[in-house]
Write a structure and sequence with these properties.
heterodimer, A: 365 residues, globular, B: mainly alpha
């Protein structure tokens, strides 16, 4: 009889707190539709690994070593993400990529801020939350041996889903109504199939030469995109976008939860990491907007840029682009900047991966 | 966890280097993309679509 209840005595209040956190993540995923593909498995996993004497730890450890410790899962996921990405808007207007670069400022600002509290490798791993890119966060944190992988992942995916809440107030604070109403005529420019095919190859070569540590991240992303654009691998492209990405996502979330055991997750550091992640997102948004405003100082009337598109330079694709487009429509229902915002958003995808590679180049060796 | 404010200043170097690196890489990608487009595009492929 004793065997049926003796494990109850092993329950600690910390475990109960983690069950509540897991429950909140599941609630947010289901009721609020916040990144459900990842927050739901992470939430369930948080409960699973915090059961007393949990027998799930060993199989999850095996999964962790097989897919996270060697960065396999995030890299495979990148093939799917690359296959989902349509880079046409930036190919027809490549200058938009400058905003993708500017919006990475939050990463480097947060690196400096986090270094006041953490050692430099942990600070760099926390900073990359600002990439708004889950797989890049996993790869960087894992390669740099951060102790805070669980907290970093929860922060990264939570903030990605909170883009519609975080970005608008920052954009409004930094722009005037007149600036938000700036119209940007869209010149539709047909992009040749050859350009679409060459683009992923050229990006891989350039990024691989300048920032060799980004080669895996950029390479897998661009490989997925090449499968999409080549036109002869439609079946593989469809598999990468759907089946492959879904399969990896199922295991990714629940495996990440292994790093959410109460003993390592429940600490003031976790709260600090979540706060620093928010700083990274806010400064990213501000970086893109302010860069656009600076560019406007040098542009003639009629050629000015709606500074809101600068905020779309983060990697949360296509959410950030849509948020900016909706804000422009709210100010002026006849002002369509969707294509420009999506172009900037797609360039944010590339820039954040390159930023991750640069961070690795600085601190891995 | 130690609070070391001076680390912010000492790591500004990485902020500068990181932003420079991002702009250099993206700048090269922009130039190569424009070149690619110029070499492969057909004449008369643009239309105004406000």
């Amino acid at each position: 009889m004793e065997i049926l209840y003796e494990n109850l005595l092993n329950i600690t209040w910390q475990m109960v707190v983690m069950w509540i956190i897991g429950g909140v993540l599941i609630y947010l995923a289901i009721a609020k539709d916040m990144e459900p593909t990842l927050l739901l498995p992470i939430g369930f996993g948080a409960i699973l690994v915090n059961l007393p004497m949990s027998g799930a730890l060993e199989p999850l450890e095996t999964l962790f070593n097989a897919g996270i410790a060697n960065e396999l899962f995030p890299l495979i996921l990148f093939i799917g993400i690359g296959a989902m990405c349509d880079f046409s808007p930036i190919l027809s207007n490549p200058k938009l990529m400058l905003f993708g670069a500017a919006a990475q400022f939050g990463i480097f600002f947060t690196l400096c801020t986090a270094s006041m509290f953490f050692d430099i490798n942990d600070a760099a791993s926390i900073a990359i939350i600002g990439a708004a890119d889950g797989p890049t966060s996993i790869v960087v944190a894992q390669k740099l041996g951060s102790k805070y992988l669980g907290a970093i992942m929860v922060a990264a995916y939570s903030y990605m889903s909170l883009v519609p809440i975080i970005q608008p107030p920052v954009i409004k604070l930094l722009t005037t109504k007149k600036e938000r109403m700036i119209r940007m005529p869209y010149v539709e420019h047909e992009v040749s199939k050859l350009t679409k095919i060459m683009f992923p190859i050229v990006i891989t070569v350039i990024a691989g030469i300048i920032a060799p540590d980004s080669a895996a991240l950029v390479g897998f992303l661009m490989f997925g995109n090449l499968i999409r654009e080549c036109g002869v691998l439609n079946s593989l492209s469809s598999t990468a976008q759907n089946t492959l990405a879904n399969l990896v996502t199922i295991f990714l979330g629940i495996t990440i939860a292994l790093r959410m055991q109460a003993a390592e997750f429940l600490s003031p550091n976790t709260l600090l990491i979540i706060g620093l992640g928010l700083v990274a997102f806010i400064v990213d948004t501000a970086g893109g907007v302010i860069f656009a405003k600076i560019m406007n100082l040098f542009l003639k009337e009629g050629h000015k840029i709606n500074p809101m598109i600068g905020a779309a330079g983060i990697s949360a694709f296509p959410m950030s682009g849509r948020v900016v487009h909706k804000m422009a429509l709210k100010e002026d229902p006849s002002n369509f900047i969707l294509m420009q915002a999506m172009g900037v958003n797609a360039s944010g995808q590339i820039a954040s991966v390159i930023a991750g590679g640069l961070i690795l180049s600085f601190f891995l060796h | 966890m130690n609070f070391t404010p001076m680390n912010f200043v000492s790591n500004l170097y990485y902020m500068g280097l990181g932003m420079l690196g991002i702009f250099v890489v993206m700048g090269i990608i922009i130039l190569v993309t424009m070149l690619l487009d110029r070499l492969t595009s057909k004449k008369g492929g643009s239309k105004d679509n406000e």
